[in-house]
Amino acid sequence: MKIWTSFTAAILLGACSAEAPLRDSKASDAKISEVAAKPLAEYEGLYEYENDTTLIIVAGPERELLYADINGARYPLRPESKDVFLNTGDIPVEFVRDTKGQIIGYREGPSAEADPKIFKLIDAEGKLPATIWTVRPEEQTGSYQYQAPTEEENGLSVRALEEGSELRVNLSDLTEAIYAGQYPNTHSVLLYDKGDLVFEEYFYEHHQDKPHQLRSATKTLKALLIGIAIDKGYIPSAETPILTYFDDYDLENMDPRKQAITVGDLLSMSSGLDCNDWDGDSPGNESKMIYSEDWVKFGLDLPMQNEPGKVGYYCSANSAILGRLVEKASNQPLRDFADENLFQPLGFGAYEWDFRPDRSNINNYTQAWLRSRDFLKIGVLIAQNGEWKGQQIVSSEWVKALEAEQSRIGDTPYGYLFWKRYVNFDGQEIQTPQLSGNGGQKVVLLNEGETILVLTAGNYNQSSETNDILINYIFPAIDLKRE
Description:
Layout: H1 6-15, H2 29-36, E1 45-49, E2 53-59, E3 66-70, E4 73-81, E5 84-86, E6 92-97, E7 103-108, E8 119-123, H3 166-179, E9 186-193, E10 196-202, E11 212-213, H4 218-231, H5 256-259, H6 263-267, H7 286-289, H8 295-301, H9 316-330, H10 334-343, E12 351-353, E13 368-370, H11 372-383, E14 387-388, E15 391-392, H12 396-403, E16 407-409, E17 412-414, E18 419-425, E19 428-437, E20 441-446, E21 451-457, H13 466-474
Antiparallel strand pairs: 1-2, 1-8, 2-3, 3-4, 4-5, 5-6, 6-7, 7-8, 9-10, 9-21, 11-13, 12-13, 14-15, 16-17, 18-19, 19-20, 20-21
Helix pairs in contact: 3-13, 4-9, 8-9
């Protein structure tokens, strides 16, 4: 099927292909100047979208670019020509006018395509407030003044950084840089150091109690839940063949290699299924999966490309299968299992997790939404070998397996739905193992988890600023353990 759905393409890339090389989607200065003269307000409003949902078109800061707001995520639309904008995949989004010249909707893909669907304008007054582009919180006036994080019941311990310390100075400088627009669309920055939360700041409309979408960082939550299910005896081990849990499916492309796929093969992205989200021609690419009625069956139906456990390819179908596997093994919805065995024990606040691996969930893509503090707790749990406040949430053996190199995705070592990245700094490779999701959703464990950086952001399908922040503000201020 030929897919022209530009906004849907942005969603699926954001949810799953978070780890593929991302393009810089900034418009050229000439195009920005051209579009700045256009009355962008006429495009704003609430529009129809796929699967009986809606999206909001909003003019960006300084009213220079348009953005499509889908489920709280905003995707830039670069000006191309009159009434035509390009998404980050260079797919045209053309606004349609009536005989009086009024905007009545938009269509996607080349206008020459036969009978392209028009998504209608529902409400021209259905706009977002201009304050969504205000980076500095209302209470922050003048130059930034560091404030220690506040303690929260059943939460992380907190500590104030010493006045004049290099880390406090650098984090204050980072905050000022964000205020100045150097790291646009950064939503939160948290730093945990030597057992305490020492820094916590939020930007734009984000705040401590607001859950943030995690995109592919959700995958690491599933890896932890698999470990808990093994600890509880619902799943024998990582070596358990997966098809024993899916005998209710009449599967296609069966062969002995498929029957040999284990839980660990899915977790390490080395299932052997012909599935690669970084290759648009792959039969298992997520752009094909999201239009299927059952994403789990879609993945299990794929032909085999390799022997299980031999070659790693980033494949979101593996993750969908694992989520359903937890449900089948525990006889509970994934959200309920997570709430009982992970979220409540860690004292989570507000969160969302709608795990429906089918076409009806195309806009949210089964991702979890967590508060930044709770996102950090996942990193602390891993750093503490599965223990939280004296309670062993998941076995230390499982956490060690999660962090160990189980395969390689491209040139990068990969654990159990967990990235083992590194950054070149001062002539050495500094290990930066992490949870990672498109748009800049990061939990980065430094110094074997002694220091943990949390970032949330809205730079979907664009390059992450994480390494720049690490190199310029974090690494110089902590005593790095070097190999």
